Amino acid sequence: MDFDYVEKIGALNPQQRIYFYELFAHFLTVSMRGVLFFEGIPDDERVERAKWLNEVAHRITYKIFLQRKNPQAKWTDAEVWEMIGKNTVKHPATEADVNLAIEMSYKYVIDNESDDVE
């Protein structure tokens, strides 16, 4: 992926970071729905992809909770990126879905939640 996750997400202000992670979790669920309901995917592949997408989404939703509950909590973006890598390597077909969710979330935040946006 041509996206420096740690640098770009780390540069977001706290509110933008929350928005990013909320959108990231949302787009992961959109990907899971696509996997579950697209007719062209064999059942065993459907289950594996949904399982690993869900694992990433599960941890991202916890990251959101943690940030809201205790903004000073130390679960860094680098640690999140490492978690993403550890889970996508378990089923590489999920990597494209996760990357797209990251890119769409980041783009939305930059385009709509930046100081430059009116």
Describe the 3D structure.
The mean pLDDT is 92. α2 runs antiparallel to α3, α2 runs antiparallel to α5 (94-112) and α3 (43-69) runs antiparallel to α4. It is globular and about 45 Å long. It has one domain (13-112). The protein is built from five helices and no strands. The chain has 118 residues and is mainly alpha-helical.
Compile the SSE list and pairings:
Blueprint lengths: L4 H6 L3 H24 L5 H27 L7 H12 L5 H19 L6
Which terms summarize this structure?
mainly alpha; globular; single chain; 118 residues
Q: How many structural domains?
A: 1
CA radius of gyration = 15 Å
Strand content: under 5%
Number of strands: 0
Terminal Cα span: 30 Å
> Can you give the helix content as a percent range?
over 70%
Write the element-wise H/E pattern from the N-terminal end onward: HHHHH
User: What is the makeup of the main sheet?
Assistant: none
Which structural class do you get from the secondary structure elements? Answer: mainly alpha
Number of helices: 5
Uncertain runs are: none
Shape: globular
